[in-house]
C-alpha cells in the first residue's frame, strides 16, 4: 500500500518527520538528565550495551545501535578519554578491536537506570500501558525487527 503520494505528502505530517522530532525531543531531554554523569544519550547506549554484554566490539555496537562506524569510533574515543572504556586488539585476530568497561564505566552505567526511566516516563505520561505496548510494537514493525 502506498501511504504517501506527491499530492498528499506534507513534511510535518510524514512518519519520518514525526520520528525525527520524537527522537530529537528524547535526545535533548536525556542529554540534560545525563549531564551530571558527563555522558550523552548516545554514549549511554554504548555503555548500557557493553554493560549488558550485548556487544564487545565497535562493529557489534554499530549494528545494534544503528550508528555508522566513523561516529562509533569518535564516541569510543571520547569514552576512552573519560576513562570509561578501554580498547584492545584481539589476541587471535589483530584486526578485531575488543571493548571492555573500566570500573568507572561500570559505575556510570549502573547509575543510568536511576535516570533514564524518568526521562522516558515523563515523555509517555499521557499514554496508557496498552498504548506504550502498541507504540513499541509499531516501532519494531516499522524498523523491521
From TrEMBL:
Residue stretches making up the HTH marR-type domain: 1-144
Keyword terms, alphabetized: DNA-binding, Transcription, Transcription regulation
Superkingdom, natural source: Bacteria
Keyword Aminoacyl-tRNA synthetase: no
SUPFAM superfamilies: Winged helix' DNA-binding domain
Name of this protein: MarR family transcriptional regulator
Organism encoding this protein: Paraburkholderia bengalensis
Amino acid at each position: 500500500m502506498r501511504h504517501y503520494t506527491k499530492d498528499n505528502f506534507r513534511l510535518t505530517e510524514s512518519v519520518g518527520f514525526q520520528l525525527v522530532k520524537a527522537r530529537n525531543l528524547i535526545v535533548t531531554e536525556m542529554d540534560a538528565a545525563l549531564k551530571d554523569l558527563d555522558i550523552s544519550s548516545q554514549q549511554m547506549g554504548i555503555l548500557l550495551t557493553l554493560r549488558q554484554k550485548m556487544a564487545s566490539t565497535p562493529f557489534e555496537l554499530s549494528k545494534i545501535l544503528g550508528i555508522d562506524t566513523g561516529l562509533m569510533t569518535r564516541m569510543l574515543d571520547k569514552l576512552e578519554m573519560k576513562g570509561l572504556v578501554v580498547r584492545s586488539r584481539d589476541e587471535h585476530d589483530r584486526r578485531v578491536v575488543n571493548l571492555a568497561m573500566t570500573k568507572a564505566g561500570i559505575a556510570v552505567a549502573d547509575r543510568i537506570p536511576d535516570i533514564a526511566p524518568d526521562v522516558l516516563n515523563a515523555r509517555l505520561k499521557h499514554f496508557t500501558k496498552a498504548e506504550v505496548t502498541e507504540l513499541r510494537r509499531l516501532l519494531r514493525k516499522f524498523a523491521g525487527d
